[in-house]
Write a structure and sequence with these properties.
251 residues; alpha/beta; Rossmann fold; 7-stranded parallel sheet; 8 helices; globular
Length: 251
């Protein structure tokens, strides 16, 4: 007997889909039966590789910068015209740069604006543009990829931490405002063992691993599995924040 995939017939849009977490999320959702749209800003080759790796049919990729309103509207129009529905929006596109928290002068206005335009305004713009599609069948889900930095205040820079705190606040506001037709949940990773973590020296990574109660850094696949669990197995979650961090803030 063929058992249907849990997300069969669902359409998912993953912003920043060519990155580490984005690619893992695209694969996890496609494996569960979803039709996936891989959004990318600049990494077209990486987006093509992600697309080619997905099981199933009907997937697509689309170039759009989430901090450009016209791009976001065009992306929503593409989804509407090609698929006629959207069930899952994963706001994964993000931007940061490492700046020591005490170096206030290095965190200039342009960098602050770029961080907030992508990490907060871009996520809001995608929800706003896709709201009617997500609400059409009364079962839409928005996953905002946040960070434990939004709560701990420890992250790549002060503005990045603040942008993720703002994203979590938006999750709470929209979890209330868009209910009951659309659920909105933040998924907040700790430091992910991947390309960004590889930019730090090995001693720093070893220390972070040692201070994580579960004994390892999380992976992009851990984040993708959490996203899948929220969508499929946690239907009563909305307006809240799910941490996937191995217990790192506990120490």
């Amino acid at each position: 007997m063929n058992i249907p995939h849990p997300l069969s017939g669902r359409v998912a849009l993953v912003t920043g889909g060519s990155g580490d977490i984005g690619a893992a999320t695209c694969r996890r959702l496609a494996t569960a039966g979803a039709t996936v749209i891989v959004n990318f800003r600049s990494s077209e080759d990486a987006a093509r590789r992600v697309l080619d790796s997905l099981p199933g049919e009907g997937h697509s990729r689309i170039h759009a910068a989430v901090d450009r309103a016209e791009d976001v509207r065009r992306m929503a129009d593409f989804v509407a015209e090609r698929y006629g529905r959207l069930d899952i929006l994963v706001n994964n596109a993000g931007f940061t740069r490492f700046i020591d928290h005490a170096d206030l002068n290095a965190l200039d206005d342009d960098l602050i604006d770029n961080i907030f335009q992508t990490n907060w305004r871009g996520a809001f713009a995608c929800i706003r543009a896709c709201k009617d599609l997500l609400a059409a069948d009364g079962g839409g889900v928005v996953i905002n990829i946040s960070s434990i930095a939004g709560r701990t205040g420890l992250g790549s820079n002060v503005a990045y931490c603040a942008s993720k705190a703002a994203l979590d606040s938006m999750t709470r506001s929209l979890g209330r405002a868009l209910a009951p037709k659309i659920r909105v949940v933040s998924v907040s990773p700790g430091l992910v063992d991947g390309p960004y973590a590889a930019t730090f020296d090995r001693a720093f990574i070893a220390e972070q691993t040692r201070r994580t109660p579960l004994g390892r850094l999380i992976t992009a696949e851990d984040v993708a599995d959490t996203i899948y669990a929220v969508i499929v197995h946690m239907p009563m979650l909305t307006g809240t924040d799910v941490h996937v961090d191995g217990g790192r803030p506990l120490t």
